[in-house]
Amino acid sequence: MEEMRVVEVKRDILAGNDEKADAFRAMLAERSTFFADIMASPGAGKTTLLLALIKKLRERGCELDRMGVIEADLESMVDALKIKEAGVTSVELNTKGVCHVEMGMVERAFSFFENRAFDYLFLENIGNLVCPSEFDTGAHCRVMLLSVPEGYDKVYKYPPMFAAVEALIVTKCDYLSLNPDFDMAALKRQAAVLNSGIKVFVTSARTGEGLDELTTWFEGRRHALLD
Amino acid sequence: MEEMRVVEVKRDILAGNDEKADAFRAMLAERSTFFADIMASPGAGKTTLLLALIKKLRERGCELDRMGVIEADLESMVDALKIKEAGVTSVELNTKGVCHVEMGMVERAFSFFENRAFDYLFLENIGNLVCPSEFDTGAHCRVMLLSVPEGYDKVYKYPPMFAAVEALIVTKCDYLSLNPDFDMAALKRQAAVLNSGIKVFVTSARTGEGLDELTTWFEGRRHALLD
């Protein structure tokens, strides 16, 4: 009975959320802003990868002030400060303990940018491999990170996340030598079974491995939006 | 308005959950069963630590059939199979995508043990550093794991979890050499600011570091229950 009530309320909220998300996505597309939502477990390396990606995009000619970040956290400003220190335009989205980001929060956070024009807008979602996948954040593209130390056997354990994303970015690959059991082929195979179109990138922010390929992919996704 | 409705429904459910949890805790205490809830991010090493702990308890004289595990996962049986392969009595708790474990699930899972008597009962909660902390699972003791590769800066980012537990078990300490930035002293200091009574264990299931101390602590917690 209690569970039923929650399910019904949740369904209403998700429907409202989806409508807002579609409108937000269309509004950003008109402004030529490509919006990507980055999801992962705590400690998978979201902030570090984001900073590495922004650096690459900059090297390829995207001005720093054409990139913005919405930095979501339950309570603190730990990651938001790292982004600010790197000189990136960002807004801190404090969910006050809520385990995911939904559209009301995205809209409110975005309003703080005061109509600045971006080529790329990134959302660093809450560190959580479960709940964020359920809520459309209005992004044109959703990606997830999985770090090598977490282990390769996560597809069957957290399927909604693997099903929700366009790309799986394997991070901290400089740890592979310490993880002889990490079966990259099995990870790719299992991810493809669940999500046949999923693109897999093997990266390390420490060594730079895979970052060029990933940056090219993001550029391509943005160009696809503009066409 | 939508958020309000969710909060109200959630409050009802949490109140009902707490009552059930107290009754379950008392029932287990009468049977001299000590129940511990193990929480962490995905890939922090919950299953591996649990198997190492069970092995230690066995070496110290606890019979294998006096230990039981409730193994929670969103959908798969990946971890439940590992536990079964080790010969441990276990029940798979499949939450069907729900991001945490609550009492109805614990009671149902426990019924499958058919009144077997345990000295130790363990719950491996869903891999999620956010939601599980909110729901009392009827355990006598809640602990969390944080693995070294996740980074030390998690206390301020995931405070409800750090506030909810008696012990923080730092895992994968054999990775410390690869993580010169991991500030163990800062982690301990920040955890103690948030939760003054928190006990911190520094462990590695690979090297065995810290496992004796941790096992002694669990034994002590059980004895405190029996007194």
Summarize this, please?
2 copies of one chain form a homodimer. Chain A has helices spanning 2-30, 46-59, 78-85, 103-111, 159-164, 184-194, 211-226; strands at 34-40, 67-73, 89-94, 120-127, 141-147, 167-171, 199-202. Chain A is an alpha/beta fold and 227 residues long.
What separation lies between the terminal Cα atoms of chain A? 49 Å
Number of helices of chain A: 7
Number of domains of chain A: 1
Largest protein interface, residues of each chain: A-B, 43 and 43 residues
Report the biggest beta sheet of chain A as strand number plus sense, adding barrel if it closes.
Answer: 7 strands, parallel
CATH-assigned fold name of chain A = Rossmann fold
Q: SSE order of chain A, as H and E?
A: HEHEHEHEEHEHEH
Number of strands of chain A: 7
Strand line-up across the major sheet of chain A: 3-2-4-1-5-6-7
Describe the 3D structure:
Two copies of one chain form a homodimer. By secondary structure, chain A is α/β, with parallel strands linked by helices. The first copy, chain A, has a single domain, classed as Rossmann fold. In chain A, 41% of the residues lie in helices and 19% in strands. The first copy, chain A, has seven helices and seven strands; from the N terminus they run H-E-H-E-H-E-H-E-E-H-E-H-E-H. In chain A, strands 3-2-4-1-5-6-7 form a seven-stranded parallel sheet, sandwiched between helices. In chain A, helix 2 packs across helix 7 (211-226). The relative contact order of chain A is 0.17. At the A-B interface, helix 1 of A face helix 1 of B.
